[in-house]
Amino acid sequence: MDRDEENYYGKHGEPRKFDPKFRGPIHNRHCTDIICCVIFILVILGYIALGVVAWVHGDPRKVIYPTDSYGQFCGQRDTLNENKTILFYFNILKCASPVVLINLQCPTTQLCVSKCPDRFATYIEVQASYRYRPDQWNYFRQFCKPGFNNPRKSVAQVLRDEDCPSMIIPSRPFLKRCFPDFSTKNGVLTVANQTTFRDGRGKTRNVTDLREAANGINSVLDARSVGMKIFEDYAISWYWILIGLFIAMMLSLLFLVLLRFTAGVLFWIFIFGVIGIIGYGIWHCYWEYDHLKGIPGSDLTVYDIGFQTDFKVYLQLRQTWLAFMIILCGVEVIIILMLIFLRNRIRIAIALLKEGSRAIGYIMSTLFYPIVTFLLIAVCISYWAVTAVFLATSGEPVYKVMANQTLCKYANLTCNPETFNRTNVTKLCPGAQCTFAFYGGESLYHKYIFIFQLANAFVFLWLVNFAIALGQCTLAGAFASYYWAYRKPADIPLWPLFSSFGRAIRYHTGSLAFGALILAIVQLIRVILEYLDHKLKGTQNSFTRFLLCCLKCCFWCLEKFLKFINRNAYIMIAIYGKNFCTSAKEAFFLLMRNVVRVAVLDKVTDFLLFLGKILVAGGVGVLAFFFFTQRIPVFAQEVPMLNYYWVPLLTVIIGSYLVAHGFFSVYAMCVDTLFLCFCEDLERNDGSTSKPYFMSASLHRILGKKKLSPKKA
């Protein structure tokens, strides 16, 4: 008994169970994995409740608006700071870097201002001249604390109480914060064309002293300028980008249709091309080997010359080319032997690819189902992001003592700004202030913010995987309806995609949620491992890094395996309507009984679909390149004036690849479904009148068995 016949009858020759009423996806179903379905619904309700609680406690204005030392938002409507949208630092020299300025609190007074300073000035100079130059005082006063207008107060007291900054320097807003207006002149760092400035405390300092406080600002500002130009390019070329993506969609559809006629041709052209290239490599290695004959030093071995950093040295040895020739000959022989022994399975794989193209032709609505999956995932991402922002901005303002003296024992302790001036902290730590530090709280809700964020991420992963599972099960049900139609297309049910979607939602939500849950747990573990790896990146413990690397690798492999099992389990669910574990087990053993066919089909499908993606993205990319570089005379006048032509070009290329991937993912699901149905067909039926095959005539011809009778004992 050969391998194929064994698949028909079973391992010991007994006929496999045959249901004469079986005609594809079962319609008389029952709900599966009900417990998981109930848990899934409860989790969704809890997720909604978490979003509501986060919405009640959170305030996204804390992210949008910068906050001054009093916990007030800069630029917030209907407040005193409505027209003061920028945050100003009294002494930016106390701030280490822009990262600290944005994420933490700098130990200096911070005020909301309407605009950044545009000149150098010190409080000492302004106070000395306020009587005969009141305009300078009025300009400087806008960077002092609100309501301060007492130039007669001594300089020492003003600086001690931080009523006004000791100096102002030319600045420009970045991320709604005032940063020094750096520029480079003849390789020298300057601010407003000056290399020195007075700090208002009797010292003349170099502009380079501001470098740490604004490290990296120039490069980021340059990036911001580039970003604005890129935005402008998108604004004037978006409709041409959409046209390019539409062309990519049409090319993808055309490629799927043509696969019915060209799948075999494309595959065999590639195979014989590889054989020809390897054959040329063998000839070239022999030519080099023969050409080096008699040349002094060419008969040395690799062992004789040892390790050399210049690898060209090895190419002067006959032994090197002989090794290359032997390796290529081995590869050539392996490929030829595989083609000889796997030729029938390759023909089956190509026939299934053609059958997939035919199935999509009858159920064209499946090509647009990825839009539904995309919308579901977009909703999940949006809800997760909004919930994460509201959770991150939950809490009340927390004020801490900011002291200039490092030995102040009250430094970094929480305080109340309303009663702070009546305490003895200001006496023990002169210059200390009760300033806003961050948002937080001591309630039960605030203590578990991190747990809520973790739950938010986990449920997000679960929902995304469920949306993908729903799409796979829906498509599998539709394509299974096509395969198990005895007379195609007459017996294909009406609206197979919508019927499959309804069955998946009505009966198998629990099973799909179960598979998505397993995958989400593994993905969450991977996220945690990545976080730990990021935190421990600077550690010197080699064993810890090695252990983390091994764990990351293992869970990556586990995730890939689970995705493969889940995908095929969903196909079996769509066909038979059984629970997840049973479907996964049956799919796994069915694939193991046809493991060679699985490997061949997988590689042939991957190659053809990858070729299709490259052809679509490359073809549209070449067309876009000629268009945006004005090399198409007919459309030369229509090309918009761009700052960077590569912006819409790369967008079109990447977008075309994603469009092709969306269409081809449907095709890949179709081929996988038809393959499992094909294997089931072989095990259920034998081609006789009582148990006819449901496969197409082309697959039936490839098998070469017109009729098989049950084997007698």
From TrEMBL:
It is found in: Cell membrane. One of its GO terms (molecular function) is antiporter activity. InterPro entries: Choline_transptr-like. Its main location: membrane. The chain crosses the membrane at residues 31-56, 238-258, 265-283, 321-342, 362-386, 459-486, 507-529, 607-628, 649-669. GO terms for cellular component: plasma membrane. Belongs to the CTL (choline transporter-like) family. PANTHER family: CHOLINE TRANSPORTER-LIKE (SLC FAMILY 44) (PTHR12385), CHOLINE TRANSPORTER-LIKE PROTEIN 5 (PTHR12385:SF42). This is Choline transporter-like protein.
